[in-house]
Write a structure and sequence with these properties.
Blueprint (H helix, E strand, L loop, with lengths): L1 E10 L2 E11 L3 E6 L6 H8 L7 E6 L2 E3 L4 H6 L2 E4 L11 H5 L8 E2 L2 E2 L1 H14 L15 H13 L5 E5 L7 H16 L3 E5 L3 H7 L2 E6 L2 E7 L5 H9 L14 E14 L3 E10 L2 E5 L6 H8 L7 E6 L2 E3 L4 H7 L2 E4 L3 H5 L6 H6 L3 H4 L8 H14 L16 H14 L4 E5 L7 H16 L4 E6 L2 H7 L2 E6 L2 E7 L11 H12 L1
Parallel strand pairs: 3-10, 3-11, 6-9, 9-10, 15-20, 15-21, 18-19, 19-20
Antiparallel strand pairs: 1-2, 1-4, 4-5, 7-8, 11-12, 13-14, 13-16, 16-17, 21-22
Helix pairs in contact: 4-5, 14-15
Amino acid sequence: MLQIRHVSKSFPGVRALDDISVDFVPGEVHAIVGENGAGKSTLIKVICGIYAPDAGEVLMDGERIVLRSYSDALRRRINLVSQEIQVIPKSTVAENIILDKIDGYLARGRLDWGRINRDAAHHAATVDLAVPVNMTVGGLSAAQKQLIMIARALSSNARILILDEPTSALTRHETDNLLQLLRRIKDEGVTILFVSHKLEEVLAVADKVSVLRDGSLIGTRPVEGLTKADIVQMMIGRSARTLDFGTLDVDYGDTVLEARDVVQHGRFAGVNFSLHRGEILGFYGLVGSGRTELAQILIGEEPKDGGEILVNGAPVAIHGMADSLYKYRMGYVSENRKEKGLILSAPIKTNITVTVWNRLRDRLGSIRLADERATARDMMAALEIRATGPDQTVNSLSGGNQQKVSIAKWLAAQCDILIIDEPTIGVDIGAKEYIHQLIWDLAKREGKSIILISSDMPEVINVARRILVFKDFRIVGEVENNGAGGAPVRGYDEVSQEIGRYLA
């Protein structure tokens, strides 16, 4: 048994954990849930030896243990799959999977590459990772990298396995496989700590749930008989709101972005769509269906081999993000904020103003620091970014606040067209509600034109008012949901069933 006894941890100006006591039992999946900033990440870092508690203790099998580093935790067979992608891009899949066990493959001073590749292939198959183990990792998707990290942890014969948002980038099929795998592992006596914002998965796989709020433990309850509404109430102190956004004032006579017969060899064979002023257009489909890849073509980060893209009715040649932003006022909020959307080690003010540095330079080319801080403060206030100030580094923020910073830099640039890719991955219910309202207000109140890319069906149905359904790099269907001509907005069940028919 792993026991946490009266653990507290503070950082400057923040009490991250306040007198936490909880037990984790072998052969059990124990979920830890809470809003961003509730203390989940701090708690698991204390368990892993990354942070030392200010007060309290950690016990294992009834014995007090002192973990001075993550290496100490690994020696005690405590293994963490972090929310952050942690792979070596220039190494192979096999090398990444056996990374923390490489000494075990030495024979007479040489590595046994045959055994490494065989074992790695076995562990990759366990998590349904269908890529050659001798392939370098750099070109793989975020979901594939996440599966590599899970395979690495599962191959370590862990007694205590901690999974921090393990399904954030996985498809539904990959998620189902992982949950089945966790059920098998717990039957072998492994203690599994499952940290997730996806309460449906928590209820599907966990035996117990511990809820944190503002650094305090609200309670630990068995999952049996527990509902999603019960957990939400514990997490945020109120019931989740159902946001009824209604209709958008779309100007269908003003097409701001259009794709005509766009071709990319090996992927797209003639894609057509249009985006209108004031519209939220949903791109829905599973990971790998072509949604993100088409967005990359639109902003010039991926080449096209045929067809044309039009902005405000005129054909354009976009050769990268700089063209997209500065010539056509089109921004892109990446699905992978940690690798592509943010400079994690830089302060908030740098991340927010990086898109408008050209406006903030004086005659000598230097950034006007007062204007930089003022711009950052304005955006932090507008998006309710919770931080000590614009000088706080982004990597110290919660996931929800990081996402707000990622959106803020494009709003600061006053983009007319905004492509937002998986906006609520890894964020809690409260932050998700806020981000959905923000996206709606940008279209409804400011007339922005938005492409919302999501594999979360409730998200895309509730927020978008026209949805393009993607499958195998094709748009296989279009669903209208704006209540045009005074008609009511259609119900969730009706729209989801129509989407399902296109995907069948």
